[in-house]
Amino acid sequence: AGKFLPVALITGLRNDAIQGVRVYDSDSETPILIWGNSLRKNFRDGVAEALATYRASAPEGSSSAEGHPWVLPPGFQVQYPELEAEFVIGGVYLRLFLKEPTFELPDPLGFLEQLALHWIGEVEIQVEWKGASQPQAETRAVAAKSNEETLSMVTSGIVYLLKVRPPLADQFALWGYTGQVVQYLERAVDIGAVGAPAISSVRLMHQLVERTRCVEALIAARTSPIAQLLRLLKPELIKDAAFVLEGMKKIFRAKDARGYPALFQSALSMQLPKVLIEDVLENPKLNEIIDPAAAKVHSVELLKLLCADETLGVEVSALLDSMPAWRKYKHQSHDLFLTADQKVDYFLTDGNPDAPQLLTWSGHKAQTSNAGFTPRLTQGAEPAAARSTAPVATAQQRPAPAAAAAAAAPTSSFFPEKKQPSGPAAVPPTPPSAETRPAAPVPQQERTLEISLTKGSAGIGVDLFDDKGKVAIRRLKQLDPGIPHPAKLAKPPLEPGDVIIAVNGTTCSSFKDCVLRIRASGESMTLRVKRAGNQ
């Protein structure tokens, strides 16, 4: 935070002073800014205190600031008691993000990185603490600061962020965190910590496997993900076995993932079909877990996925046909046993099936952009839900899926754009006639450029993403004033949308290859990029 104002407010004032003053005079409660009357009073009191200290230190009889520079005391910072209880990660109020995950964050990639680091720290403490036979007093004190609720909140933050912005999961895998998730699951199960530490790992895996790249990272992990998930099903089913089974089923849906045949073969060597029949479907204690009907559905669908495999499916089918119990499930459509409530991720709803619409989206993907701060302002009184401690919004507070997607769309200014009319009164525009229809746009041509640049404290100053195998520049990083920007100072400057095809004259064979070459390069380097445009 800044010495006087929250960082988000400072950024807004820096980008647009007039609009920034409007934000200062208004009330706001968003994932990146909490501001209101009591906080404005804290600010005024802090400034008054700083001025009083300055005047008290002025030479006797001095009537001006000449020869008496204003130097803030070491460690000075305006105190905002109202914000002290907020859990802030990467400049984002986590409580409010969980209530409004579609809010357009200024730096979602940076937020994900900070969430991942916090998650590792929290689960590390939990695993070490629960694994100690006689915890030291210091260990207990540290663990007290990192309780299961904190770990659950951080996990929910990652899950929500990846649900709203699925491509970010690919970056999670590139950072190497996907394999670490499996390792922490193994460590948790080893010490019998099948509560928060193990389940938080399963929750991340459950979301990550929506992306093929993440499934490939799981397959390549040092520890087998299937082996660790099976440990949660036998010798006893954990209470969240249905959720575990759904995650396992999603892994086996990624048939195009590299290494899938080896994964399939290893699952058979672990007797996965037999475990699903004997330890899940025919388990006399199945009704004691959460969502036993869902556990049946996921087990049967997973078995049918195994039977449909082009290479080993016949072998699986023969094995299952030899088991009398399979006859009861082979021709049944068990999804009829699922209710609407059972299809909701109860980890994110906190037991309230009315809470999130986000988890039931099908095909809705909020856009990821580099848009700036867009506070939502309320004049006068604060919103009714301003100080709610619930992890997610209620059905009445949240927007509908279409509205949520629109809320997550890029914005271009410090303030929300004017809303377009909606509802029955909104009349769709009349399609243009052939006479008035504009001419088709001229297709843009690609140019190949050789760009020379010098690395700085922020590397080459850009955020890259994998655009279907192409190494594309998503945006230029925002650097503090006075810090040279490598991308802007490059000759010619790099631009969002540029596709890097070579580093120092060597063609990039993949996204990872390009990133490694950039990191291994010296201070000065050349990039060959393709850029769309006719000029």
State the helix count.
Answer: 21
First-to-last CA distance: 43 Å
Share of β-strand residues = 5-15%
Please estimate the helix content.
Answer: 40-55%
Key traits:
535 residues; alpha+beta; 42% helix
Report on this structure.
It is built from 21 helices and 11 strands. With 535 residues, it is an alpha+beta fold. Strands 6, 7, 8, 9, 10 and 11 form a 6-stranded antiparallel β-sheet that branches. Strands 2-1-5 form a 3-stranded antiparallel β-sheet. Strand 7 (462-467) and strand 8 form a beta hairpin. The protein is globular, with a radius of gyration of 27 Å.
Give the helix/strand layout.
Layout lengths: L6 H9 L1 H9 L1 E4 L2 E3 L1 H20 L31 E2 L2 E2 H6 L8 H24 L5 H9 L2 H17 L3 H7 L2 H14 L5 H13 L3 H8 L5 H6 L10 H13 L6 H10 L2 H10 L10 H16 L5 H9 L24 H4 L27 E2 L22 H7 L38 E9 L7 E6 L2 E7 L9 H4 L9 E5 L2 E2 L3 H10 L3 E9 L3
Antiparallel strand pairs: 1-2, 1-5, 3-4, 6-11, 7-8, 8-9, 9-10, 9-11
Helix pairs in contact: 1-2, 5-7, 5-9, 7-10, 8-11, 9-10, 10-13, 13-16, 15-16, 16-17
What's the short story on this structure?
The chain is of the alpha+beta class and 535 residues long. The chain has 21 helices and eleven strands. The protein is 42% helix and 10% strand.
